[in-house]
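The aim of this short unit is practical: by the end, you should be able to scan a pair of folded records and say something sensible about each. We start with the first protein, listed as its amino acid sequence and then its structure tokens.
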Amino acid sequence: IAESLKVEQLIHTLQSKQDISILFAEGITNVDNMGALFRNAAAFGIDALVLDYACCDPLYRKAIRVSMGHALSIPWAVTDNWMDDIRKLKTELGIKLIGCETGEVAKPMWEVTPTKKFGLIMGEEKSGLSANTISICDEIAEIPMSVNVPSVNVAVASAVGLYELLCRNSFDNR
């Protein structure tokens, strides 16, 4: 897929699946981070990405390079109506929305109960998730870390979050 889909097309494509995983991005403007989000999505088998209107173009040459070309192969949509489209995806696909954010309302990522249908929402590194986005989430999860380091890069955080939600309990003891 070489261009953005409409949210309705994503819903149509995913609605018959038993397991659904979507990576959402709010306000990601750094092309390196955007490319890394696509690369992480591919690494963990995410079905699609949904970007808000403020995100940078995942088809920017450097984003494609950082993504190792996965920005050309994973379905994605850009939305001009972020809150409405999140609600629509949540309702029509039956996904649990998990916001990745630090703060008092956040619980450790490993305390989030994985579900077969979920969306992980990542925010811009400096400002994080908007209050509106946080309000629509079913759970807010954080990656606990040293008090001297309040957060990690959004690409790293997405990899940790996707691992926790998709892979932590799926590996056998080899």
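Turning to the second protein, read its sequence before its tokens, just as you did above.
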Amino acid sequence: LPDETGLRSGRRASAAEKMVAVVGLGSVGSKVAEILLRSGVLRFVLVDGDVLLPANLERHTLDWRDVGFRKAEAVRRRLRHIVPGVSVDVIPANLNWQRSAKEHAGQIDRIAACDLIIDATGDDATALLLGAITAENGKPFISTAVFEGGLGCMIARSIPGRDPPYVFSRAAYNAFCDEKDVTP
């Protein structure tokens, strides 16, 4: 394809119409957002209230120029450097922070409007909240958590009509671990 179109082989035109929420923009979420952008997704809702610290640099897609900035704002800037026309809605907060009910409901509505919701927080409470949002709204969901030190990870998905809701899968996994007397 001509270079000026910005298209790459294997990229589906329908990807540009999809909107993806990435919640948690650390070592996993920042990379997932960039990979999705490079795969043709052009609409995002990025959620993270954390600030990039120097200790984050070894595993993050961001670099030293972003230290001290909120990760959500910095990842938006990075995505716009890759594809200037990308649409990025930022929620610079963690979903379990205290705030007004109206503000919280608005943030949940913005996430629920997405075609795919990705949890990259590694936080159980946030994963369960997002799993409930996706089940209620019939949206596909992916949750991932990287183990301390990056020595492994857990990935779970829930596709409506194909997989059980995330909360049920997670409960089954925890019951299995309890039965085997192992730490999840």
